């Protein structure tokens, strides 16, 4: 595109909009009726600089070529977890081109990557998994009857009006005294069933 025939802002906006709609260069050329080279140049300028302004040719050339952009996309395909700052550092090391991470992000967005990084999961070895299970089971609220007794106490206390520490203390003592031996016996007798549910769940959520 010659310097004397710079594209209008409306045309540049339209090209970027169509590319954002996943239109191919061939489709865009037919719509805007401009040479393919013009369309590619306009979109490349947008990707590299993040705006619709025409860039003067008397200044520095684009830091990243189309080849560089394709290389960035390939790197992300191989390693989806790599960050934009890390990619910028790799470009600087390989090509001596200092590039802002935001430029890298724009290139990735133009290639269909929205910048989301796969969530990291904490690695737990098989040995540590067993240690966690050995620790968790004795401390599991599903296998601890007192947890259910405290839940019952809490439910009963909430049914009473407590306006001070003293009234709260009395309400707790009363609720505890009202727990029948049958309630505690039923909790103890439920332990075999609880174990049958908790052990296969590997400390996951259960009905208890």
UniProtKB/TrEMBL annotation:
<dbReference type="Pfam" id="PF01498">
    <property type="entry name" value="HTH_Tnp_Tc3_2"/>
</dbReference>
<dbReference type="GO" id="GO:0003677">
    <property type="term" value="F:DNA binding"/>
</dbReference>
<protein>
    <submittedName>
        <fullName>Transposable element Tc1 transposase</fullName>
    </submittedName>
</protein>
<dbReference type="GO" id="GO:0015074">
    <property type="term" value="P:DNA integration"/>
</dbReference>
<feature type="domain" description="Transposase Tc1-like">
    <location>
        <begin position="70"/>
        <end position="139"/>
    </location>
</feature>
<dbReference type="InterPro" id="IPR002492">
    <property type="entry name" value="Transposase_Tc1-like"/>
</dbReference>
<dbReference type="GO" id="GO:0006313">
    <property type="term" value="P:DNA transposition"/>
</dbReference>
<dbReference type="GO" id="GO:0005634">
    <property type="term" value="C:nucleus"/>
</dbReference>
<dbReference type="InterPro" id="IPR036388">
    <property type="entry name" value="WH-like_DNA-bd_sf"/>
</dbReference>
<dbReference type="InterPro" id="IPR036397">
    <property type="entry name" value="RNaseH_sf"/>
</dbReference>
<dbReference type="InterPro" id="IPR009057">
    <property type="entry name" value="Homeodomain-like_sf"/>
</dbReference>
